[in-house]
Design brief:
Elements lengths: L4 E3 L11 H7 L17 H8 L13 H12 L8 E9 L6 E6 H9 L3 H26 L3 H18 L3 E2 L5 E3 L11 H11 L11 H18 L8 H11 L9 H14 L6 H13 L3 H10 L11 H15 L2 H13 L10 H8 L5 H15 L5 H13 L3 H12 L19 H14 L2 H13 L6 H14 L2 H30 L4 H10 L6 H4 L14 H13 L3 H13 L6 H13 L3 H14 L6 H9 L2 H4 L5 H20 L7 H17 L3 H14 L6 H9 L9 H27 L9 H20 L3 H4 L2 H11 L3 H6 L2 H7 L4 H5 L6
Antiparallel strand pairs: 1-2, 2-3, 4-5
Helix pairs in contact: 2-3, 5-6, 7-8, 9-10, 10-11, 11-12, 12-13, 13-14, 13-15, 15-16, 15-17, 17-18, 19-20, 19-21, 20-21, 21-22, 21-25, 25-26, 25-27, 26-27, 27-28, 27-29, 29-31, 29-32, 31-32, 32-33, 33-36, 33-38, 34-35, 34-36, 35-36
Amino acid sequence: MPPRTFSLDLGRTGNYVCKSCLAHLRPGNSQPPPWLARQASTARSLRSRTRKPATGLKEKDPDPAEIQRMLAEDLFNGSNAKSNLDIKYYSENIATGERKTLQTNDEFGEESTGLDHEVLSSIEDLEKRMLDTLKMINVVEREGKKEKAAQLRRQFKTAIRTQYKGKTGLGGEAFGVLRISGFPSRWRAVEELNIFLARDNVVRGGIPSRRDLAECWKYYSSARKLLSTNWKAVPREVWDFLFLVLSFESRDNPNRMQHIYVLTKDMQAANVPMSDMQQLLAMEAMFIEGWEAEAIDAWKRAVVTLGSNQETFKPYYELGVRMCALHGDTERAQHAADTLLRSSHASDARIIIPVVRALAAKESMLGEAWERYRDMRMLLGGSMTLQDYDEIIGAFLAVGAVEQALQVFVDMMFSDAIDIRGRTRLPMMVGNHFFTGKWLKRLIGEGDLDGAYKVVVFLQSKGIISSPVQVNGLIAAWMRSGSAENLEKADKLAWQMIQARLDFVQLRQRQSIMTHKLEDSLRLFNTFGEPYAKDEQQGDEAEFRCQARATAETFSLLAENYCSRRLHARLQELFTILDQAEIGPTAFLMNQLIRSYSQANETKKARNMYNKMTQVLGIKPDGHTFLIMFNTLSVNRLVQRVQNLTEQDVTTARTFFKDMVEAKWEFDGPELFGKLPRTILFSMFKAKDWIGSIVACRAMRHIFGFHPTDALLVELASGIGTLQVKTKQNTIRLTHGSRIIERTKHGYRKELIERGHPGEEMTPEELVEENHAVFEQIVFMKAKVHQVVVKDLNRWIEEVSKEMGVYDIVVRGDEKAISECMKLDRQALMHGMGSE
């Protein structure tokens, strides 16, 4: 009910009495006329329309029907909607006694009808369209087309019933018109919630969108405090609709249970009875929000109602199994699961999985957990999926029951029953690197890293040393996680593998010098597969020493990790041990060490390490090596340029380029192909080696299949190192660079037309030539070289190309030399790596 309104005007005299007062003064009439329910006109407009011209005759009382028509016109008159009232109207909140003055027609209409201006406008538009439709049907009928008019009238009635019945839920339930009345319009939070509820595009087909989910909670949470002053004013349909939206299960609704918990508390405070499914969701939300004992007590009390209802029987007991299992009440969880499985309802045996997990968590009930797993496997039969097996394996691995987990994996892999529990040595079908390697790979892929480590420990206790490939995979997964705990585990396990490698190398060295002792023989024998003594292997996982021997991949993982974490001292220690482990350094290891030296600002040591490893140790560098070496130049490290260092960079960069061309390597992916040519050109631009940059671009065209892109040309012209740095100054420079490229291309194409080019659309080959020509024009512009000096360009190019080791490629164009130095294989060319 809207607040009552009354008028009070002590400064006005006259004989006017408002129609609302007249209606109450009439005897025998306890109800106001129906037209007063939508009164929104002013006193002045009413008098101006009912007053007749002065003729000296007594005025007659106006016709009530005419007054109703004029009031309706005033109510929906948009031009006068916001005009001030001629009579002072007041609104009083009966509950609080608060009184306010109504200023405009809109406020008067909202207080008297309970509908805000937006809703009234919508009603007006709807009525207008309905009247226009009826007029059109009448015109058709008057023209003699009665059958057509009857058909249109039926369609009109059907549309009214279907289109304007309100919002519908996922199950087709209708909510009707949703609105919360009984609150002052100045309470903005409630009005915003009403606007949300009135939107036509909310929850289409019973499925809320991401926006619906977010805004529903936003507006409801904002209005909760105000609504709590009068919960009874919230209609049941609104509660049901809010529950429908906030309880919708979706990835876009991550706080679903928290929202349900808050909403159900409010519904309980408002004494709103909840449906059966709403009660179940409320129990689950209460449990997840931390009120576990209270949720289980509520579940127990509902056994007579929800537990005996045919519609809620299955979800009721499924919820009980999950809650009791998580709470540790295994007896009640098993009872609920058995009740569900023995009933006539179509139940899923997978409800046993949470029971198995709860039983396995208690060491004394591990055997009972195994029996429940066997029951589930028997009930599911061939319908048991890989995910089901993974759930059970994870449950056993989480509590350290590796033997039971391995038995489940064996059941998954073999159709015939193979029992491995209690055996000292595993059967040959199970106890081999191929089978156990597949299990470790699956666990690592599923993200169960702690479980994979427990498997490594268990297998070694059975005399099976895990493959270094699988252990390296576990170390890499730990490192990728990024957590400090996992990094520590990875580092510890990797150094255990390195120690196993060093032990093996020492034993092999002793064997070549003298007859090794008996204990050394036994130790070497154990390394190749015999089980260790119990006092060495039985105990905490902290006492475990992995006997899988480190490989070059193990060293590479540690080197990359230390380099990324800038642990230069650990990286140097690693390379010292690398020689003791008799593992030859690889290009990857060399790259990590060089990068580490560069990060530590020890560029001289980095270059000495490069020279030592390539010239003394004979390591073949790859493209990543030269990318790192170019980044060691001072122009790529220092913010402020030093003149003598910049001059040294010119010679050093040309030497790196020569080594890069002569080395035998190939691009291993598009990422390196995108970085290396760009780094080379920018390095030479920064060092102002203009001739060197031209030679490098021409050489990379032949041996890399590289062509400068428009984006690269703009960067080189504007002098910006990257397009990703979005600053105002960079934007200005990029705009200037783009204009330079446009002017240069315009001049190039103008020269082509003068030389006889038709001027039509250019071919891909011509566009490539254009970009190369524009690149060299940018170099001339940066070098401030005049056209007269450019004539000596060929002589300079010959000299520099000899220094950079590409004379045969750039000047002579020797196909044999180009083929020998090509860094792209045919497959890469076919995939278009060299197209950009």
